[in-house]
Amino acid sequence: MASQQEIELGRLAVARGLVTEEQVLTTLRARNQAPDGPDLGALLVARGLVPGALVEALRGAVARGEGAPAPRRRPARDEMSTEHEISLGGAREAIARETLEEAQAALATRRDEALRELRRLADEFPDTESGNRARELLAELGA
To answer: How far is CA 140 from the centre of its chain?
Structure first.
């Protein structure tokens, strides 16, 4: 599952015009499918989307806090139609929702694996609706 630092790295890569939001979301989904595999930065390099040196520069920027979302402000009336802020927070919920659905489907056939995935989802995505739903499911299942 993508970490907050990976989300911020993706946000920065998009903001700096290195990749599109769609490319980051697709890569985040691949990251979600292989939680023990390479991180988002390594996947962006492996897919030929961002050179390794730029990924390292992005990692440094994230470490300095540059990838954190800017505080929200209400745009001026004339800015509303041109605002193009990338919301990877929405991507975070989409990834969490997909994981939740997979874990729920696996409960009947692969219960132990599904419970592990629900625990991980509840721990890593406490700020999402799906993370909260995973926590509720665990309580309902007595796990």
So the answer is: 26
Contact 133, 100 (CB under 8 A): yes
pLDDT in tens, 51-65: 999 999 999 998 988
Q: Give the contacts of 83 (CB within 8 A, at least 6 positions apart).
A: 75
pTM over cut 0.70: no
Maximum CA extent, the chain = 54
CA distances from 83 to 25, 69, 116 (A): 20, 15, 40
Alpha helices in the chain (DSSP H): 4-15, 21-33, 40-46, 52-63, 88-106, 111-124, 129-141
Sign of CA dihedral 87, 89, 91, 93: negative
Delimit the domains of the chain by residue range. 4-69, 88-141
Contact by Cβ (8 Å): 19, 49: yes
Q: How far apart are CA 78 and CA 85, in angstroms?
A: 15
